[in-house]
């Protein structure tokens, strides 16, 4: 029983690391740009396919292909986001939400058209785990947890210690006032997209390293990533980290009491309950 | 009526003329008219690997019979459509074959969903349909005895897994089951069958498709170290499950169906991960003259062995050709139906190739066709009894270890 609990906890943390990389960016986008970007998890997919293209198709060693794949995803994803969300003469939360659904459809189908629907894997040999009692983790899985934790901490430093971070937080609190005080809102918005897409793309590469990649991988994560962001208090990156951990662990722990086929309900139920009783989220302002 | 009598007479005469032309043209052509066969196989989609081999086998049989002079002098002409492993595309293809090509028989549907969708079209046109699908629903179709299958039925497969587990010496089993009708059916029937051969279920998990990770389910199915783990899913989830299983380092032996643990699967997980996995699939009737003949033709044309599904395709066209021959060249649905069991079932001289069978059937002698895939004896429901192969994945390939005879399943049911 205890060893089962430990195993579920390890699995939950691993999944939470991947969710957090998506949810933090999503929450940041929501706070600053004030709309729910449904296409955000697809940036993870772009990162995963970027690394696949460079490693398997171009033939770069994976150590190079992974960071360059993230760069490629940023090079594609950021202009796309700028074009679709910042440059179109549309404002309003609902309009941007609907545009983002369209962006998601276009991105997924372009990848589907280019790479096909097959499951793809990186040409990196699968690893055997290190075993400490009930804890079983491969080197890549440890790397995943460390990188996710490190990046999330880096976002924290950026938000608290830099001028850009102050502007982003100010935009999230009061965009009009922020612009009046002379902050370069447009540049801050560009920075926001770069941060969001980078985090998501890293998450996608780590996802592919541990699991498999396919065009719908981002779409399949929409519910858990959104619930992590919403439970944590959407617009609040710290809440998103905590929300990811809550959803990841909650889903796994729930299998102790309910059949595991229903564990995906946990994410949905958490989101629904939260929106009903505490819409600003557990850590929302 | 604005049409005057003269033009009406002209019209009537013209119509009669057309009828006369049509019948006049048809009468002398009858002896030369080809036997039109509609091949409806999956060349794309989930069944593509198998459909391609089947289409090749149909072409090889048609070629062989045509070179030997055809069926009572009638050549076989194949019309091929891709059913895309998809019922919609299957119905479109079948309609085209029936309405435009006016085929005398349909054959090759692989997915049960496609077979069930296409069957009404064949029945309405009163032509036989030969499939390789496994759904029990196909046996119960109100098909006017026109739908035949050469594959095993899915409901016997849990018994086959139980025997396979016994044969590899497993006393305990885990189950890793996809949450859909096929997976749940297996989960509900396997424990009983495994119990009958003295086995015990040690752990199980049911999972949904498209989960980002299957770690906790794998732990639940394999945590108690069962001797064998039954995999009840498809290729895409199989690839993810096996990769995560390997990364968990839990060890153990997997067992699963051939349609999931196929070449695409082995490619997806890598030969190292798939090594030692037990695969259960229908086995060709490799001792028969039919299989030997097919394999020789197949090797010469494509440089590889003919597998189970290609062997079934060979049998489809062979029994139809023999039935038409027994009907003295009559290729109507009624004639094929009336003669199918006459040529395929016992009693009679055992035959397996066109060269063996043709002289006997032409003389009106009774033959019993023993096929490349099985004995091909059709029961009242149009089903046959197929043997099973127990394969192991070794070095990235299936290697046949044992054959499980259909009759060995009887004590389990």
- What structural category characterises the helix and strand content of chain B? alpha/beta
Task: Indicate the mean pLDDT of chain A.
Answer: 93
Quantity of strands of chain B, as a count: 14
What oligomeric assembly is this protein in? heterodimer
Helix content of chain A: over 70%
Order of helices and strands of chain B: HEHEHEHEEHEHEHEHEHHEHHHEHEEE
The SS-based structural class of chain A is mainly alpha
Low-confidence residue ranges of chain B: 23-30
What keywords describe this structure?
heterodimer, A: mainly alpha, two-stranded antiparallel ribbon, 12 helices, B: about 425 residues, alpha/beta, Rossmann fold, five-stranded parallel sheet, 14 strands, about 45% helix, about 20% strand, elongated
What is the compact description of this entry?
The complex is a heterodimer of chains A (285) and B (413). Chain A is mainly α and 285 residues long. Chain A has helices at residues 2-33, 40-57, 62-87, 93-115, 139-161, 163-173, 175-180, 185-210, 217-220, 222-231, 237-254, 264-277; strands at 130-132, 135-137.
Explained architecture:
The complex is a heterodimer of chains A (285) and B (413). Chain A is mainly α and 285 residues long. Chain A has helices spanning 2-33, 40-57, 62-87, 93-115, 139-161, 163-173, 175-180, 185-210, 217-220, 222-231, 237-254, 264-277, and strands at residues 130-132, 135-137. Chain A has a domain at 2-117 and 136-215. Chain A contains twelve helices and two strands; from the N terminus they run H-H-H-H-E-E-H-H-H-H-H-H-H-H. A two-stranded antiparallel ribbon of chain A has the order 1-2. Chain A starts with a helix and ends in an 8-residue tail after the last helix. The model of chain A has no long low-confidence stretch (mean pLDDT 93). In chain B, helix 12 crosses helix 13 and helix 12 (308-326) packs parallel to helix 14 (354-362). In chain B, helix 14 (354-362) links the parallel strand 11 (349-351) and strand 12. Mean pLDDT of chain B is 90; it is low at 23-30. In chain B, the strands form three sheets. In chain B, strands 7-6-8-9-10-13-14 form a seven-stranded mixed beta sheet, sandwiched between helices. Chain B has two domains: 35-153 and 287-364, Response regulator (Rossmann fold, 3-Layer(aba) Sandwich); 155-284 and 387-412, Response regulator (Rossmann fold), CATH 3.40.50.2300. Chain B has 413 residues and is α/β, with parallel strands linked by helices. The interface between A and B is medium-sized, with 35 and 30 residues.
